[in-house]
Structures
1.
Amino acid sequence: MLKTNLLSIVEEAPKSLTFSRREAARILLSGMAVGAVLPLGATDHPIWKHFEDEHLMHRAEFAMGEGKLQFLNGEQFASFAAMAEVLVPGSTKAKSANFVDLLLSVGAEKARKDFVESLAGMEGECKKKFGKAFAGLAASEKSELFSAVSEKSDPLHAVFLNLKEWASGAYYSSEIGMRELGWTPDRVFAEFPGCAHAEGHD
């Protein structure tokens, strides 16, 4: 993948050693503005609009710490959390599902509807093929399912891409994700690499 130098994007190194969602979102958006090849594939995906809301990104740190679901029900949350972990390993530690839940709680109705329908569609395919929910599948079954729907000819390909974008955006806007992309404690990127999860992203 192409790599874009982002030294000019990060103006100075903040004194804090923690990396906030607000900082991550700012850098990801800046990278998109200068044509960097970012981990999120579709720049028109709803998650990008949320990244532009610095107040929401700041609020995310506190809301996620409370551990309360904002939009998804328990079953939906468990389902997406399990899918996100397969799509982007490390998503559970990055609290990706919690972050997406918060974004959906303030998101546009269409984005909410598309997400819920995508989740239901994927779960429906799980029940059809394996007779159980995604979270209950063996690792090999999860891999088989995602391998099938990742094909452009598969009826659930668009559903797969939608869920993958949410999972990718949530992960790479976390401190864990930014470190994977090259972040160091002084906030300087030598270069902005593409996604390192070959199976999770195109």
2.
Amino acid sequence: MLEIQSGESEKVAVTVAMVKELRQQTGAGVLDCRKALDATGGDMDKAVEWLREKGMAAAVKKTGREAKEGVIGVYVHHDKKSAAMVELNCETDFVARTDEFQVLAKDLAMHVVASKPQFLTPEEIPAEEAERIRSGFEAEARNSGKPEKIIPRIVEGKLAKYYEEVCLVEQPFVRDPDVKVKDLVKQNIARLGENIVVRRFARFELDS
């Protein structure tokens, strides 16, 4: 049993069971779980948040690394009338063969079937269409009589909602709407320790 100092005088005992519970919740390593419990005085909820913040920060540092390995995630809807394929890349074949990575690839394909994205990222929207959408939102805001100084903020808000509708990485993940797809990917970067890139996707649906 390891004792850690919490505050000025209170000591909280970090047990193996606590470390195990935190690992089950987060998938983090033993040492990281101990550090988290140490840093938060043994508070399980705070330890989860501590690991999340540290993991996301580490994930940002990995996003520039080259990702050439990976898998094709495939999902076919139960009615056999719609399906999707997603190319998901990582840095090594070792990670590509893990259950976690392959489940992520399939989950993303399932998300594509359910949410019907049109583009991968906002940057992939053709320039003419992007400008048409922005101009439409600006005209709508002005016609509503809103003060000129707040129109840019209104337009940015409407664009953000539009991206959530049509861009895969900006959409709320179908299994957990509180998490965007891009954040789900970052969580897996932190968990698996490699850069992960959603390279492309394709959706298929029978004409009714």
